[in-house]
Amino acid sequence: MALWWPLLVLAAAYALCRILLFLIPPTVPSIDVDASDVHVPIGLKKNTSWYCLVYYGYLTIPPRKGKRAQTDKVQCYEPATMKYLGYFPALTPDEVKEHVAQARKAQKIWAKSSFKQRRQFLRILLKYILEHQDLICEISSRDTGKTMVDASLGEIMTTCEKITWLLDEGEKWLKPEYRSCGRSMLHKKAKVEFYPLGVIGAIVSWNYPFHNVFNPMLAAIFSGNAAVIKVSEHASWSGCFYFRIIQAALAAVGAPDNLVHIITGFAETGQALVSSVDKIIFVGSPGVGRMIMNRASDTLIPVTLELGGKDAFIVCEDVDLPSVVQVAVRAALQSSGQNCAGAERFYVHKDIYSTFVSQVVKIIKSISVGPPLSGRYDMGAICMIEHSEKLQNLVNDAVDKGAEIAGRGSFGHLGEDAVDQFFPPTVLVNVNHTMKIMQEEAFGPILPIMKFNSDEEVVKLANDSKYGLGCAVFSGNQKRAIKIASQLHCGVAAINDFASSYMCQSLPFGGVKDSGFGRFAGVEGLRACCLVKAVVEDRWWPYVKTMIPKPIQYPVSENGFEFQELLVETLYGLSVWDRLRSLVNLLKMISEQNNSPANTRKKSR
């Protein structure tokens, strides 16, 4: 007993020290990021560190119609007001290659950085984000039309969650991982090592301009890579400002210049990026994803494709209806109708269908749509020009085929030039799978609600889609919900919740079918930025070394194959007795060969 007391005291002292260290906040320097020009009235502002020439201001320009007039400039507007934000250059292939070359040079230095330095980079970013949530959300709102609340949910929380997961677990998952060595290699140690790939390229969509930049950048930089990110032509203004935050944080930890690049442009710019980097991550449409794959095949680089979805939202009859209705509306209108893994198909059990619809319609009718920064609105603008026309065409197609509009939201005070940029949240009932709204990704605030009769039927309906990104299943019986979700062909599932899996950043994110392949986020996404190397080494070096058994040494002996047969049976026989019997025969063969006359003569010489 006396022996245990010192051990208990040491354990308690260790635990106390860990608690005290946990309570002591780390020293994290602040960074200064110039944001004065995003509030400045019209004026010319040149920032060479962006490689961009930008006009910031509030010049109102009529809504754009038709094809792009210029291909050498990316014009930026506030979708909620159509105020002009400025322009950025559409980089040529040669300019893209120069950016990648600079990043590659910086990566060779950064690859040698410590995890301590990388964690400090993350802490500096986290501190800045926490202290400047309003600025980050305001810029996202101005560039994409979403509300401040939607920006906080989709931009701030997701990014902070990723940073904290990397701080807590990132190093653990990038350290060598020891694996079992198998029966034939008991004298060896087997492990997997993770090395940076080099330059990670990303082509990201517009719906979450802050998180879509930070998401691939964080994984790339923490795993020792460089990153070159092409932001969407619909969200270039915000992406280039967010780049300043990254630059300042990298400088604060002494990272090499040019480790991260933000580039702007159109298809030609993206194609050049794919041809220049060591891995490409793409978030966008299936059509463009196929072109990315085709271009990546030229250099045979790994590709991760997240190509959107048509997520099913399933509601069984035994749910707590009021709470589920609120989640359903939030899921459909996520990010001002600019869904990313948003619910686009709603299947509700026939016994509660009418009640569910009436409660959804009640909420939808209370929603006010308007410029998100000019008043208290529940939903903002549609980011892409003329996308509201596409949404209305989907509604018209459904109505023409028998659907009914059960309710719509209302418009707030809109300027004349901004009307085309808004679309009211719309509830459709009596829908079926012949309608485009149940098959095509809408990327808009439309709730098509279809009834189902049984669990078997709803599984069949949910799987009747070319997409396979995510799903949400609600039931008062959790086992029932889990069983339904397990039968759905998709990459992400939430039980009695929606999109909660993405907030668990230890989990991978991605889909199947036309939703793409590969995963970002989680352990899988982090390691996907790495060269994964299998390594085998001697367990008891130098005392036990690899030697080729005599029967199969060159020249191979007459009984070489017999030796191999016995060796296989010794290692993999179905029973212990089979393996022991083969081992005895194997040892006997080796002994006989060692004592053969030819071998004896060799020894005497």
From TrEMBL:
The keyword Amino-acid biosynthesis does not apply. It comes from the Eukaryota. This is Aldehyde dehydrogenase domain-containing protein. PROSITE patterns: ALDEHYDE_DEHYDR_CYS, ALDEHYDE_DEHYDR_GLU. Residues 70-535 form the Aldehyde dehydrogenase domain. It holds the Pfam family Aldedh. Belongs to the aldehyde dehydrogenase family. GO terms for molecular function: oxidoreductase activity, acting on the aldehyde or oxo group of donors, NAD or NADP as acceptor. The keyword Oxidoreductase applies. Keywords: Oxidoreductase. The active site is at E306.
